[in-house]
Amino acid sequence: xxxxxxxxxxxxxxxxxxxxxxxxxxxxxxxxxxxxxxxxxxxxxxxxxxxxxxxxxxxxxxxxxxxxxxxxxxxxxxxxxxxxxxxxxxxxxxxxxxxxxxxxxxxxxxxxxxxxxxxxxxxxxxxxxxxxxxxxxxxxxxxxxxxxxxxxxxxxxxxxxxxxxxxxxxxxxx
Length: 174
Prior knowledge:
Number of strands: 2
Strand order of the largest sheet: 1-2
Low-confidence stretches: none
Helix content: over 70%
Order of helices and strands: HHEEHHHHHHHH
Oligomer: single chain
Largest sheet: 2 strands, antiparallel
């Protein structure tokens, strides 16, 4: 038998998450003590492991509820196939964005003709906010530091701004 603290430690989840799962009907403790403490069974542990697996696939809590509460394999298969289609589409969109950026970087004359502002606007147009752009710079810096330096110089940035961008890129590991 496990307390809520045991479950938190065992599964690396917060107490709030466990209570949320209980509120949504995904994980109900096997029993409660007179003091209203929740006690979880081994079966609850197995169920929580399954919930975590489903969450790692990107399924919503609602869809996980459907999976756990619908008894047929056909329903489960339909939900999982739909999620696979969703993930496949997301990969396709990201792949297109990656290819576009690679193509732009490969056309050095075109790349050199864009200003810093034009690059910021281009990256924003494909959905990269400031944090996403910093991540882009971080990957660029990690994968190709010399090319990253040349790219920043091609934008006619002064040495201080180049240093600031490269330092922020190197420090940002989130």
